[in-house]
Every structure is written in structure tokens, then in C-alpha cells.
């Protein structure tokens, strides 16, 4: 489940934490432990058109 969604779910975000060489999505209540956010942007046909991994802190 996404952490947040915007613009009628055209943009969704997931909070992530690093676990060795991989990233894992965390539940909302664990977000303070997740310094990364994956941002996904979809077009009107629900096809992924852009993605970004952002370090928040």
C-alpha cells in the first residue's frame, strides 16, 4: 500500500528503508525509520511514465 497518493492516484509514493543492498517498503507507522521515498508517476492509462528515488534525510 502506498504511503501517499496525489492527483487521483496518478502519483504514488512509498517510504523505504535500506536493508543491505536492497530497499524495503515500510508501513506508515514505521515511516520515521525510512529515509527514502520512491515516487511513481502514471499517465491516464495507468502506465508508469516517471520514477524517482529521493533521500529525505
Number of helices: 0
Q: Average pLDDT, to the nearest integer?
A: 93
* Main beta-sheet annotation: 5 strands, antiparallel
- Overall shape: globular
Total beta-strand segments:
5
- Helix percentage: under 10%
Series of H and E elements: EEEEE
| Uncertain stretches | none
Radius of gyration: 12 Å
Could you say how many structural domains there are in total?
A: 1
Distance between the termini: 22 Å
Q: Give the class from helix and strand content and strand pairing.
A: mainly beta
Question: What does the model show?
Answer:
This protein has 57 residues and is mostly beta strands. The protein has one domain. It is 0% helix and 54% strand. The protein contains no helices and 5 strands. It has strands spanning 4-6, 11-19, 22-25, 36-42, 48-55. Strands 1, 2, 3, 4 and 5 form a 5-stranded antiparallel sheet that branches. The radius of gyration is 12 Å and the shape is globular. The two termini are 22 Å apart.
Amino acid at each position: 500500500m502506498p504511503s501517499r497518493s496525489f492527483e487521483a492516484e496518478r502519483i504514488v509514493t512509498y517510504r523505504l528503508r535500506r536493508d543491505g543492498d536492497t530497499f524495503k517498503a515500510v508501513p506508515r507507522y514505521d515511516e520515521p525509520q525510512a529515509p527514502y521515498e520512491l515516487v511513481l508517476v502514471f499517465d491516464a492509462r495507468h502506465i508508469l511514465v516517471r520514477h524517482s528515488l529521493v533521500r529525505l534525510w
